[in-house]
Every structure is written in structure tokens, then in C-alpha cells.
């Protein structure tokens, strides 16, 4: 299965970003097909969100894992970004934040060592937890985040 890891990312220090990233195991051929179809971006994103919201693939983000993620993001370095809202779904996370540093550094911290280590510790697992890529959206999707499970 071809992995799409060269999506355009926008680095806008001082601006708000809406980011979605998912567990590695949630990616499958159907999701890849959605990514590569020729539909308008908002339609494609809606279908991807609907699929991820109902898929059980890579669904590790429950109960104590959610508590660990929220604790990690609450204690997260505010110099890098200000986390406005977090919506934790079973196999992906949405975050609305204000970018205070270079975006790749923010993502390295959000997806990298800290959150992965804590989640692996709770689950008793090892290996790659998050998919390599992520999506950052210019449109503010706060309605999607509002009232979701595991939201701050």
C-alpha cells in the first residue's frame, strides 16, 4: 500500500492551526483510496473523517490512554504552541492550537517521544504508534471538535 507522506503543510507562526493525526494502524487501502480521489478537498475530508470516526482499525485511544494524552497536552510546552482544543477519537486526534514556533517542531513534540512513550506504557506495546504524516487545515473546524469524546 502506498503511503502519502508529502502533503502540503503550512507553517504560520502566530496563527491558529487545526491538525489531524492518526494511529499508524488506522491507515488502510480504503483510506488511501479516499486520499487519492479527485473530489473537492472538503468532500474528501468529510469522507475521511466519517470513516475514521467509525473504523476500529488502530483504535487504541480509550480510557486511561485518553487521560495520559490529555495530561501530556496540558503539561505541554506553551512556548511552542497554545493548545485551544483537543478531540481524541479512538484512532485519531484533532487539535486546534495557536502556533508559537516552527510547525515541524510542534508536531515532533505532539506526536513524538512523550505522547508515544506514555501511550505505549499504558498499552504495554512498542513500535510506531502514529502515522508519519498529519493534516493541518486552514479552515477552523471548531464545530467538529465541540462535544467530542475526550475533548478538553
UniProtKB/TrEMBL annotation:
One of its GO terms (molecular function) is transposase activity. Pfam families: Y1_Tnp (PF01797). Transmembrane segments: none annotated. GO terms for biological process: DNA transposition. Residues 12-147 form the Transposase IS200-like domain. InterPro entries: Transposase_17, Transposase_17_sf. This is Transposase IS200-like domain-containing protein. It comes from uncultured Sulfurovum sp.
